[in-house]
Write a structure and sequence with these properties.
single chain, mainly alpha, elongated
Amino acid sequence: MTYSNYKKEFKQLKAKPVKLKKFLKHNAPKKRSCGRMLKRCGRCGRIRSVISSYGLYICRQCFRETAINLGFKKYS
């Protein structure tokens, strides 16, 4: 089970509604007001390593692909 899709377990639990209800109660991700989970890459949806400087909100991998189009230069 991954953090992006906790609903993969539903196939096995469709026949058991009581267990499905208990599963949802304990395994559904809670609503958050701050933290890493709220900042997602606007391009690909990744959660980790999001660059929010200059209002970019893209991950470092997407930044490497689009940096030249955004006007950034590599100085090495």
